[in-house]
Structures are given as structure tokens and as C-alpha cells.
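name: query_chain
kind: protein
chains: 1
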Amino acid sequence: MNIKIFDVYNIRARLSVYIIIIAPVILTLYAMYEPVRSLSFSVVFIAILCAFSNYLFALQRYIQKDKIYGNTTAKYLYLEDDHINACTKKRYYRKLSLMDEGFSIFDTPTNSNEFKEACASAIQWLRNNTRENRIVQEENMLWGFYKNLLSLKIIGIIFSIIAITILIIISLPIDMKEFFYSSINMGVLIIDISSVLFWILGVNKKIYTVLDKKYAYALLGALDTMSNNG
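structure:
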């Protein structure tokens, strides 16, 4: 029996994000609390992680309910947009018009809202028809991974602070001098602080914008390898 809990996209774009979020807490408990290191705990933890990941995914959807992400790829097809040169854009228009009779509007591109809506529709169509394209899916997974990181940034910071709090609470019986003399304490503290800095400095909209553009170019570029019947 083949049991497949997560597909490749969920592992790389979602589950890996959730692991990064809770990693500081788990590493702190592992280093400071010996019973956590047992095999039985590891099994239980994996089961909890699988279940908790679904909650984090639902929480992410809730956090993003009012968040509007621009359709970068669709905008690149707009007549007035200059991210793609006119010759290449003209080829994409022609290709789309041949792909589906519903895209005949691409034979006469304009700056109208109707044409822009057609661009958005075309991009959704492209996403549905490039699921087997390795380059597109690679860019999609990387883009999805970072988008999820960005949307859960606050949660990641909170978990990192919780890890620092756990370290302090477990170490309360010892004085501050003894705390800083402990290589284990200092190692865990450095990891937890690094985690906070990672979320604050390493997860930002600038990096997201770069990945968003790369995914857009890959998705549109897939048109050149597709047959006219899709």
C-alpha cells in the first residue's frame, strides 16, 4: 500500500516552512530537556507535525484573507507593460490565441479592462496546463515556499521568542553567570536569536519580488514549448 501524506509541492512549499517555524522550539527542548530526545518522542512529534501543519495552513489562509497579491505574470502581458519586449509579447499573444478559442481577444490587444481580465484568465489557464513543466514547477515551488514564509513571518518570530522564553524558564534555577558559562545554553541562545534575525532580516518583500518575477518569466516562457492545442 502506497501511503503518500504530502506531495512534492506540499513538502517544499508548505511543510518545510512549518518546520522552520517550530524548529527553534524543538531544538531548544531537545537540547535542554533530555526526555525529548527519545525515539518515542520523535515518532509522536512527527505525527503532531503532520497534524499541526494542516492547522498552520488554515491559519495562513485566515491571515491572508484580506491580503491582495498582484498577478505579476498577467501584468507582464498588459500592452503597456515593458517587462517583456514587444516582439516576444506579440509571439505570446499569437500563441495564446491559437491555444483556445476563448483567447481570440489576443489577436487585437488593447489597454481595456476586458483585455486585462483575459490576461488574468490566460495565466490561470497556463498554471493549469504547465503542471508537468519541470522549470515552471521548480520556480513555482520556490515562489510558493517564500510566499508562505512571508505570510507567516509574524508567527515565525513568535515561535522564536517562545523558544528563548523556554530556554530562560528551564535555566531559572541557575544564576546568570552560570547560564552564560554553559556552552549548551549559549549555543541554544545563539540558535534562537539567529532564528529571530532570520525572520526579521531574511524574510522580506524584496526577495519575494525577485522570486515572483522569475516565476512569471518561467510561466510565460512555457508558451514556447507548448503545442497549439495546449
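note: DSSP finds ten helices and no strands in the chain.
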